[in-house]
Give the backbone structure.
Amino acid sequence: MDGQTRDLPPLTEGLKAASQDELAHAFKEMLRIRRFEENATRAYTRGKISGFLHLYIGQEAIAIGTNLAMREGDRIVATYRDHGFALAQGCDATACMAELFGRSGGLVGGVGGSMHFFDRDKGMWGGYAIIGNHVPLAAGHAFAAKYLSDGKVTICFLGDGAVGIGPTHEGMTLAGLWGLPVVFVVENNRYSMGTPLGRTLPVEDITLRAQGYGMESDRFEVTDPFQVRDRLKVAVDRAREESKPTLIELLTYRFRGHSMSDPGKYRTKAELDGFRNRDPMEMTRRALMELHGVSEDALEAVDEAIIEEMDVAMASADASPQPVPEHRFKNVYVEE
Amino acid sequence: MDGQTRDLPPLTEGLKAASQDELAHAFKEMLRIRRFEENATRAYTRGKISGFLHLYIGQEAIAIGTNLAMREGDRIVATYRDHGFALAQGCDATACMAELFGRSGGLVGGVGGSMHFFDRDKGMWGGYAIIGNHVPLAAGHAFAAKYLSDGKVTICFLGDGAVGIGPTHEGMTLAGLWGLPVVFVVENNRYSMGTPLGRTLPVEDITLRAQGYGMESDRFEVTDPFQVRDRLKVAVDRAREESKPTLIELLTYRFRGHSMSDPGKYRTKAELDGFRNRDPMEMTRRALMELHGVSEDALEAVDEAIIEEMDVAMASADASPQPVPEHRFKNVYVEE
Amino acid sequence: MAVLQIREAIRDAMREEMLRDDRVFLMGEEVGHYEGAYKCSQGLLKEFGEKRVIDTPITETGFAGVGIGAAMCGLRPIIEFMTFNFSAVAFDQIINNAAKIHHMTGGQFHAPMVFRGPNAAAHMLGSTHSQAFDTFYAHIPGLKVVSVATPKDAKGLLKAAIRDPNPVIFFESEVQYGVKGEVPEDEYLIELGVADTKREGADVTLLCWGQSVAIALAAAELAQEKGLDVEVIDLRSLRPLDEQTIFDSVRKTNRAVVVEHGWPYGGVGSHLIARIQEECFDALDAPVLKVCYEDLPMSYAENLEHLTIPQPSQVLEALEEVSYRG
Amino acid sequence: MAVLQIREAIRDAMREEMLRDDRVFLMGEEVGHYEGAYKCSQGLLKEFGEKRVIDTPITETGFAGVGIGAAMCGLRPIIEFMTFNFSAVAFDQIINNAAKIHHMTGGQFHAPMVFRGPNAAAHMLGSTHSQAFDTFYAHIPGLKVVSVATPKDAKGLLKAAIRDPNPVIFFESEVQYGVKGEVPEDEYLIELGVADTKREGADVTLLCWGQSVAIALAAAELAQEKGLDVEVIDLRSLRPLDEQTIFDSVRKTNRAVVVEHGWPYGGVGSHLIARIQEECFDALDAPVLKVCYEDLPMSYAENLEHLTIPQPSQVLEALEEVSYRG
Ligand SMILES: Cc1ncc(C[n+]2csc(CCOP(=O)(O)OP(=O)(O)O)c2C)c(N)n1
Ligand SMILES: Cc1ncc(C[n+]2csc(CCOP(=O)(O)OP(=O)(O)O)c2C)c(N)n1
Ligand SMILES: [Mg+2]
Ligand SMILES: [Mg+2]
């Protein structure tokens, strides 16, 4: 997109096998996430958003590919880096932005903010911010699916930084022991905050742990949404059909700092450029152009429409009022 | 010892390689533990001991073999099933029994009871009763050894039931990551309370987890104290010389219930008999007789001396007064 | 009326609710094949099978979380902690996930479930196994907290707790499982948040719950001999708290004492005292006193443990002190 | 006197103690290369190297436990929690191992160490990241608990905490790291367990600590305008608690209010009130009031958060109420 000549990697099998419609859909959805995040950045800078804001830029192919591997009723359980999943699941962009603004029109009415996106009907089951503590919950959703024999699969995302913590271990132990229909996906973006993997994990390959949990595993560098879709699908099917959990490690990269307060100085420009070069969203864009002859202009038009959508979402979010003061007393207890 | 003819297993290499002195020492020490535990049982039945009482009968070879693999200054960190380690480390039997009685002469002055045996000078670093929460502590002792370059090795014991819990995982993760001089030994006695391994762990082989922690591992059925000594020694040396942790799984068996309140009905007589047949203590006794011609009478004499020792210990313990009332205020804070 | 032990009342409550509602299940260490470390689930595995009576590995954070996750899907888990002392390793799950999920999701999810098990000191279990978790959980908005002292209360409150759409912490006691009492044959529920006046009296209000109820009643007997007529209120529910019953009684007696199985600093008792002095300031003829654990880790030795735990004689002294007697 | 931010005072305290004593080290998430999530360890990795400034993976139970285990061997760990909210997953290590090891081992071992980091609500971090852990830890015998509000106090108390042979919980605050104040150039220590009267006054005693000190001082200014002369006592140390200073003040003013960054049920504030009514019953002209968090999980929305956290105007109201004014 910057017009510079770069040493671009070849298009992947996944991209080649995809139809133009599939590519167009995936590209659009990834770009929607990216533009949403960019708007969030701007809003944060302008003081419209407060607290922590963790962007998904660079990892979009995962949320999109996952969405394509899921069935109606399946569940996503994610960390605080959750905007991408919400948008991929079809959550309303205005509601998402309004949540960041802490407004009544927010996805959870403004009480959660960036880290707690939930939209039950869309299969978006959170948005958790205590590292690892959502892993047992995801196992619990899967337990319920098995208990109720409702065929629902839970896909639980965690960061590379969440692998060492106890609750992750316990959730995986129970899933393996009881054969729960859940897929654990580690989004290994190489860093937990400012700390590279080598300083947080004793071994590089996270899926080495799968054996101890009696789980199947898979591990790959994310290149495009279709690869994610296809390889996740294997695990999702295993969960649904055999009631067996899987541990998947996705090697990926975030282009921004950990959160808005992190300039990300611990990374080199060369490293960043390397990953930008094979940004799965850009690869998808290239596939549309190179394999299907879609014009630069046509893609610009898509982008403009998305920018428009996201600007409208931002404006609508901003027009949403703050929650009424009494709202804070709501939902502390369920009143029957 | 019951005079019945049984299909006895052959003597092991470890037993064959040991000298008569070594055998005699190990046999005596194992028997001391067993007689101590038997006295504790009686005292419990008579109401002299209260709370939880977890016996080590059947697993004695581990404590003895471990002691033989250690050097002065090395540390044992154990669970609530800790009497055997204390005795193996040379803690005073009277102080141990007095601790069970809650008396001022107890190993920790009567405030800890059965689950909290500590004797710093003897390398007995506890005695912990919240499953898994001693694993990070043991890593911490090893961290200190590395920090101080004092060459001390920590050997941390845990049950098969402690493998699934988070603190165990975190302690092992840090030990692996930082290369700490610690040996983690899982005493897999096939049960956690009334629950057989198959209902608590997703896979049978606990050492499969070692890989994920970047650790070496070892796994074997405990046959005799020398085998334990020799194979632990490899790990202890690795810790001391290379500052690398090891995960060892020892397959063993407890002949009694989980604690005094557990009749152990979940096990079959056949299973119990099978393990009694290859009781490492009995094997050691047989080695003395079969390989070194030690007479039944000579061994009886050893036993009688031990029974005498333990009876005296029990009587002395019983003569120890309760802690003075003000003792409860001591050691809440360190006063400088 | 049948005469049951508390453990049987608890078992019956779970059994009846499991029969009534397929979504109710029991999960915890040794709850199935072993029938409970304290035999509170005797017969349940046999009756309901492994699907609904589930033995877990020792993974309190894991199975507490599984329970919460399952509750979010509409199931009604009963999570047994072998003792609440072990809930310390599941603390985050309880205070962050169970307590907050309803609020944090803007009401989209909730966690209808019970965490139950024995709490506080039993007998000679040492410092890590003798802690009262009342304060830790009563402190947290989003949780309900119940503590029972009789078979009848145990059954009626547990059934209500299982049906409650909120996460309920349900405190029992090792040393009370064998306590017997009459339990109605017909089905009944006891509403959460309603205290029970276990003994009426005119001179001093004595507040208690869980294990401290027996101490309070014994102290009231001792006081009666000294001519003091003590009103013993069993709070039963710590959150929500039946403040009205407390304040009404204090306004009648003008004096109050709290007996607490728990530490002095910032405990439930402190809360009761703070609330009473705020709401009944003018009615109080004496400061409200508290008799509770000494501010110490629990010792194993029998004599030290006895001294650390509140005894009826100490409560009597406090009753006399607030009455300016003795 | 140098003018420093609280984060700098904390850094200087750690630095000086690390220079003085080789056994002191700092461990936590992002404390090294990143120099602290809130930059409290700026420059320390560079100065002391990776041996003594240690980045950990996200394993609060693990590294808290490693700290305790190392302390038992004679080292002097400083364990940083990125926030105390994350200490919920290390709760058992703190309340069982750190707090009890000295007692449980009959005095053979002890844990000379500091757990430090920001505590309570910051700004719009949502319900799981905005909790006050004061009550959880102040409740526990075996721990010491400190909470600081000024650079001078932060430095002097942290140095004393590092030298203390007991485990000390040391509360800071995200929103106060940038607060500036004068700090003596020469070395000094501030003894744990001594409150500081931040403002003298004759009419009402106002108790506060940590984040609530600023609120209290602001409220005292407002009150002054209304002719109320408020004495503001910064407790600084919650355990041990400087009860004498509190009681002396209340006996002088005959009225007291507590401002607390924390929930109402059974908090530190409840404890203060319970103790005051017990010890100063006859001196009190009005019930002791408390202004604290509302009994709610924290909302993210700015307006809701503002309403949930105590504000000076509410404290003023309480001051007027106990003075029977307004
Ligand atoms: C228990 C706990 N400890 C610390 C934190 C603070 N924290 C939030 S995100 C984060 C880094 C997580 O990294 P990773 O798991 O790799 O996920 P990523 O941010 O890269 O997606 C940390 C330390 C937390 N939220 N919870
Ligand atoms: C966190 C925690 N949960 C539960 C318990 C209760 N408990 C004590 S021992 C035990 C069984 C442990 O079995 P295992 O680890 O195999 O050791 P073993 O007793 O066989 O030596 C249980 C469940 C505990 N002490 N701590
Ligand atoms: Mg990461
Ligand atoms: Mg076992």
Observations:
- The first strand of chain B starts at residue 75 and ends at 79.
- Residues 255 and 276 of chain B are 8 Å apart (CA to CA).
- Residues 18-315 of chain B form a domain with the Rossmann fold fold (CATH 3.40.50.970).
- Chain B has one domain: 18-315.
